[in-house]
Design goal:
heterodimer, A: 248 residues, two-stranded antiparallel ribbon, B: 322 residues, alpha/beta, 7-stranded parallel beta sheet, 5-stranded parallel beta sheet, 9 helices, 18 strands, globular, binds flavin-adenine dinucleotide, binds adenosine monophosphate
């Protein structure tokens, strides 16, 4: 069984965000694997290494220009067997999902697709669900644990106020979040060396339309200064919360 | 033409977020001159159903069918899409929670309707259809323009005020054609919290970080939460250490919440933590380090030891209540 992991290339989570000319200003930005996708990849590697599962190949797929290749190489260094880059500038979740589905629909072997719950740049919360609908396969969202037994997967998914264990046949799309793996795996020296030789296929995109656009970027408004209260004066704080902030 | 809204219940009552959704849908329906239709798969009684009218639902479609007992994304998508087609949907609104996040993207493709996730306000304009939203996990904002004729939104919890409009709703039963064979997911086990407030629904949240020192010190934090009718939360290292359950972890990689009041005790205020809580209406920080970044995000701050400050807050709240 093959696991496809869809990777978004995003600014490092500590990046100070700036906008210029109505766009995200990329100067000096460090690019990384989207945190949830990194956890998804880590879990995919664990499943491949576990002799008790039928997983024998992990492929990462990214929609992105050549500038996303360092991030893809990092995924190969973590352990993915091979990578596919669909050579297009991502426009919105809808078109990204469509491009992914056009590539994935041709795969006939037993497989499973993993995406993250959201990308930390445009916070779409959408590609995984859209992809499953384009492919016409089931999806499970909010996945925080994933195990495979034969042609069956056992997943835990978060529901409001709880957790559900769900059984489902492959193929399907698992939309993963925190918990799916403990810590993201860090590439080892050997992995980094090997990654250079691993196959990275570049595919030309079909022509596509986005259905949404992002514009009018702005930074959050500066917060008024924090009002400091003396530690001996808890009563004053409660009073302020009641009468000034009106939240009690 | 209709604005359609998907509602949910918890323990036989509609969630407050469902009333927010209906209020929100009604405000949009008024702007585009259409009806507000609510879908209820909930098991609630007639009196509870009518409450959706209180917030502006013109019509309520109730669905009771075993196929919807658990969330199968395909079966739910089929149901909502069917209703959307039948009622000539213009705008479809779902909650930005686990259910909405699972269904909205599928519906976007099924209905060929552009999706805006995690809206916090009414659209800034309807033609072009523009919605203000957070980007870069709250480190920026932008307008998302939807170019398709139909639109889908998910609305963040606690971001839209309830507006009463006292409509007498028409209640209609809707019987979809679904068969058990269409369900691809089998639920084998459920662990559901009972009686406790759901963190993402809570209006007040009391949260602890590594500065709480050990899991043994959560007593005062829980007592304060109890007194305030608040849910409890924590930073990521705290859940990683196993001091608190993972379901309490807030932040960029945990839960994203927007309560009216967020009390952070012993939390440094790392950017990834703030990404999950910065939309709170009011933030209170308790930290021994006066330079901790949490004070830049907070509205009120106390420089002090959480182990001493929390019991004092408990006393002060008790006094306020008396
Ligand atoms: C990709 C990525 C994603 C992440 N996602 C998240 C996330 O979703 N959520 C999250 O929380 N973190 C996340 N983190 C981790 C984040 O960077 C911080 O490490 C974490 O938030 C720190 O937790 P903390 O504030 O509890 O602990 P610390 O940073 O250790 O802070 C403890 C604070 O307590 C104060 N303190 C000490 N003693 C006391 C006392 N007696 N009374 C009061 N105050 C005291 C200290 O002054 C300090 O400010 C993420 C990191 C990465 C790299
Ligand atoms: N450009 C991309 N290429 C491949 N996968 C992507 C891309 N963008 C997003 N994804 C996947 O979709 C998930 C959700 O992204 P989004 O819907 O954009 O928030 C991410 O966690 C990735 O798994």
């Amino acid at each position: 069984m093959k696991i496809f992991v869809c990777l978004a290339n995003v600014p490092d989570t500590t990046t100070k965000i700036k906008f210029a000319d109505q766009k995200f200003d990329e100067t000096g930005v460090q690019w990384v694997i989207n945190p949830w996708d990194e956890l998804a990849l880590t879990r995919a590697m664990e499943l491949k290494e576990d002799a008790g599962t039928p997983v024998n190949e992990v492929t990462v797929v990214t929609i992105g220009t050549i500038s996303s290749e360092p991030t893809i190489r990092k995924a190969l260094a973590i352990g993915a067997d091979n990578a596919v880059r669909i050579d297009a500038e991502p426009k919105d979740s809808y078109s990204v999902a469509w491009l992914l589905s056009e590539y994935l629909k041709n795969y006939e072997g037993d497989h499973l697709v993993l995406t993250g719950i959201e990308s930390s740049d445009y916070n779409g919360f959408a590609v995984g669900g859209m992809l499953s609908e384009f492919l016409g396969v089931p999806s499970v969202s909010g996945v925080s644990a994933l195990d495979i037994e034969g042609d069956h997967a056992k997943v835990s998914r978060e529901i409001d106020g709880g957790l559900e264990q769900v059984a489902i046949k492959t193929p399907f799309v698992a939309i993963v979040q925190k918990g799916i793996a403990k810590e993201p795996r860090i590439p080892a020296m050997r992995g980094i060396m090997m990654a250079r030789k691993k196959p990275l296929e570049v595919v030309s995109p079909l022509s596509f339309d986005n259905v949404t656009d992002m514009l009018d970027f702005e930074l959050p408004k500066a917060k008024p200064q924090c009002k400091m209260i003396n530690p001996e004066n808890a009563k004053e704080l409660i009073g302020l919360l009641q009468n000034e902030a009106k939240v009690l | 033409m209709a604005v359609i809204v998907f509602t949910e219940s918890w323990d036989g009552k509609f969630k407050k977020s469902s009333f927010e959704l209906v209020s929100y849908a009604k405000a949009m329906a008024d702007s585009v001159g259409s009806k507000t239709i609510a879908i209820s798969i909930a098991s609630v009684d007639q009196d509870e159903l009518k409450k959706l009218g209180l917030y502006g639902a013109d019509k309520i479609l109730t669905v009771s069918n075993e196929a919807f007992k658990t969330l199968d994304n395909q079966v739910y998508t089929k149901l909502i899409a069917e209703i959307a087609e039948k009622e000539d949907v213009r705008i479809l609104v779902l909650p930005h929670n686990n259910t909405g996040k699972a269904l909205a993207p599928r519906l976007s493709v099924r209905l060929k309707a552009g999706l805006v996730s995690a809206a916090v306000k009414l659209p800034s304009s309807y033609d072009p259809f523009k919605v203000y939203k957070k980007v870069f996990s709250g480190k920026g904002f932008a307008h998302q323009v939807v170019n398709t004729e139909k639109k889908i939104l998910t609305l963040s919890n606690n971001s839209f005020e309830l507006i009463e409009s006292n409509t007498i709703p028409e209640i209609e039963e809707y019987s979809p054609e679904v068969s058990a064979t269409e369900i691809s997911t089998t639920v084998v086990d459920i662990q559901k919290q009972t009686g406790k407030l759901i963190l993402t629904d809570a209006e007040i949240v009391v949260s602890g970080g590594r500065g709480m020192k050990s899991s043994d010190n959560w007593g005062p934090l829980e007592e304060l939460a109890e007194l305030l009718g608040a849910a409890t939360a924590c930073s990521r290292p705290v859940s990683d250490e196993g001091w608190r359950p993972h379901s309490e972890h807030t932040g960029q990689t945990g839960k994203i919440i927007a309560p009216n009041l967020y009390i952070a005790a012993g939390i440094s205020g790392a950017i990834q933590h703030l990404a999950g809580v910065s939309s709170s209406k009011c933030i209170v920080a308790i930290n021994t380090d006066k330079d901790a970044p949490i004070f830049e995000a907070a509205d009120y701050g106390i420089v002090g030891d959480a182990a001493k400050v929390l019991p004092e807050l408990i006393e002060a709240v008790k006094e306020m209540k008396a």
